[in-house]
Amino acid sequence: MYRVFESLDALVTVVEEARGVPMTSNCVVPRGDVLELLDDVREALPGELDDAQDVLDRRDELVDEAAQEAEQTRSGAQADAAEMLAEARAEAERMVGEARAEAEQTLAQARHDAERAVTEGRRQYTELTDRAQADADRLAHAGRAAHDRYIADGQAEQARLVSQTEVVQAAHAEAARLVDGAEREVDRLRRECDNYVDAKLAEFEDALGKALRTISRGRTQMWRGGSPNSVPAGIPNGRSGTGMDLID
Known about the structure:
Elements: H1 2-17, E1 19-20, E2 27-28, H2 31-44, H3 48-57, H4 59-162, H5 168-223
Antiparallel strand pairs: 1-2
């Protein structure tokens, strides 16, 4: 490049020192010296300038090729994106379907367990109620039998004492005592029967309450996995979603 600059400077000097043509702005320069300097400039120019010129000549062609390649790349990227989106949607739909199927299966199992627990609770309630009623009837029958026996014993004793004039007053007192004792015994038996029946019913009420609370907690935890503002599928309107609905 220094040689190019030197040749250009020499060429400028030749032009500046050339003899001018009268009445014009032209000048007369030595042709040989000018051509020699121009050859030096041509030889000193690097080959990259020719390559650059070739690039400039092929600029439009290179731009078109780059645009075509960019369009192909964009089209391929759009096709890949559409395919990936379709695959993602299919996978999401499959996962949602599996989740719904699992939720429905879990809900059906929970309902089955709840219905079975309620049925078992009702059966136990019926058994306890029947047993308590049988015990109450048995105790009441025993109390009435004892009462009748005590009354009969009192009446017999009263009749025997009445037949003895010297012990009439004692007989009346003994008869009254026996009647009072029989009545107290009947009252005691009745209270024991009532207490027994009440205790059995309280035990069943506690057991049934625990079972219903357990069922309610399990169903509530299961329904909390859904949308906070949505109503779980299969729950009729007006239902609370707890085990108490199954008692109605």
